[in-house]
Specification:
Chain A is of the alpha/beta class. Chain A has helices spanning 10-21, 34-40, 62-65, 83-87, 106-114, 154-166, 177-198, 202-207, 209-227, 239-247, 256-262, 269-282, 288-300; strands at residues 2-6, 25-29, 42-46, 51-53, 57-59, 68-73, 91-99, 119-130, 135-148, 171-173. The A-B interface holds A 194, 197-200, 204-205, 208, 210-211, 213-214, 217, 288-289, 291-292, 294-296, 298-300 and B 194, 197-200, 204-205, 208, 210-211, 213-214, 217, 288-289, 291-292, 294-296, 298-300.
């Protein structure tokens, strides 16, 4: 099994490192970290134990990597217009493409380019940040849910889930990928959104009574929008409370979008907020707070 | 006629300077600007023409000022717990107290301390900022609407309005002070709120299509809350569009609350946002965006 990592940010580096440590051949497409990784390998600082991979197969272009069995996509979604350029050279007849990106619409965009019968979607519950070049910080969690757009791919999704499990990741194949995506949005939209607008970490939001209530209200809007999409079963309203309880253990965690803003990068507004909002509005779900969050995020997005 | 200025920020300094220039005896209670003003007087840089008052009657304590005919209150509303301490020494038998502060609840708080029969409320549409000590910048506008809590005070309100007009201020006495206050909130809540959360000036909000729409949606929530209060006549919905058109001429104006945040001060959340929100909710007006704005402002308020 040969795996290529496209979009080697915190998520791509972390899962790539775990797969390699477990014996899988992993090829990393690198930009920022290339020099550091080729010189000193990749260091993972993890709540589950630090480790160091001395030799990393790093590449500057996808053509040098060539066709692989599995492409793991961790790109920022605002770079999705580079899918074809970055992934085409990696695709052979049996290649699977697994996007672990945030938000909705990514599998569909990949399917339009490469065909739905090779696209897997993975929903990652991971707290990780990039560190200095050549390092990645894993702050906790890491569960991955893997699903497909077409039922015929279910068996291969299960094989990929097994590959992740063999690497130590809590990974399950799920029947309803869209439901898994929307469940993640229940977390992502309030926390990425509000943390990014206020530049306050997760525990600051949850420590303020009105901040905590706002998180819950935004979650309920997302749950309503999700349930208007015709999922296999509805997401219950108390899912919001469970996600808040889950987040109480995160401490001063800064979601990826907050870090993107702090470091002057573009924000993943389209996949994470605008598309879910449009999907809800299409079914006439009122989403005043999510709409307001998007407007505020557009105002603060680095230009 | 002897006037005392309590809360000599941008607004207090500006109107005090205009009154003095027109021949009224004005006594300023000063803190930050005391040394500069006593040494070099007060300079007003104004779109209507700069001027310089060489001699200013500045005081460090209200006891030194003593009783006056009119107290003009320009305090930040989060300092309203100092009303008694700062205003008591200025009040004689016939003294009027005019609050030009932002938001709602200020006249009522003054009335509880000094009696409603001496309280005037002034709604100021003024773009001004403090400059270096001893200077104030008037960026435009300046209209004042003056009203009362009790009808018996109408004639004296008209006299004060005439005093302001004689000083060159576009000033009118109005029958429904509450309506004038709520009309100002239609501007204040979206612009103070959103500019403060995003740290973007007025023209940035209005230059973003979604920002402009958000301003309008927040305005409509405030208009609905206002109209639930039983005003003399309702505020029409197109008042929102007129206020947006009015604001298009403001350029990169930073509302006072944004400056408060940027300079690390507390925010006027209670008078400007929390009380209007509570007043709307009391009448079951849904105000999701104003509620969200308050939660976000609480998160970013300097501690």
């Amino acid at each position: 099994m040969r795996v290529a990592i496209v979009g080697a940010g915190a998520l791509g580096l972390y899962y790539g490192a775990l797969l390699q440590r477990a014996g899988t051949e992993v090829r990393f497409l690198l930009r920022r970290d290339y020099d550091a990784v080729m010189k000193g390998g990749l260091r993972v600082f993890s709540t589950a134990g630090d480790f160091h991979l001395e030799r990393i197969a790093g590449y500057r272009t996808p053509a040098e990597i060539g066709p692989v069995d599995l492409v793991l996509v961790g790109l920022k979604t605002f770079a999705n217009d580079r899918y074809a350029e970055l992934i085409n050279p990696l695709v052979g007849e049996r290649t699977l493409i697994l996007t672990l990106q945030n938000g909705i619409g990514n599998e569909e965009a990949l399917a339009a380019l490469f065909g739905a019968e090779r696209i897997l979607g993975g929903v990652a519950y991971l707290c990780s940040n990039r560190g200095e070049p050549g390092t990645v910080h894993h702050l906790g969690k890491g569960r991955v849910l893997i699903g497909t757009l077409v039922p015929s791919l279910a068996e291969r999704a299960e094989q990929v889930a097994a590959l992740f499990r063999a690497a130590g990741v809590d990974c399950t194949a799920v029947a309803d990928l869209r439901k898994a995506r929307w469940e993640k949005l229940v977390w992502n939209i309030p926390f990425n959104g509000i943390c990014t607008v206020t530049l306050k970490p997760v525990d600051a939001l949850l420590g303020s009574p009105s901040g905590r209530e706002l998180v819950r209200e935004v979650m309920l809007e997302v749950i309503e929008a999700a349930n208007a999409q015709g999922l296999s079963e509805p997401i219950p309203r108390d899912y919001a409370d469970r996600m808040i309880a889950f987040s109480d253990g995160m401490g001063p965690y800064r979601p990826s979008m907050q870090i993107d803003r702090e470091e002057g990068r573009r924000l993943e507004l389209d996949a994470l907020v605008a598309r879910p909002l449009a999907a809800g509005r299409q079914h006439e779900v009122p989403m005043p707070r999510v709409g307001m969050l998007l407007a505020l995020l557009e105002l603060v997005e680095p230009s």
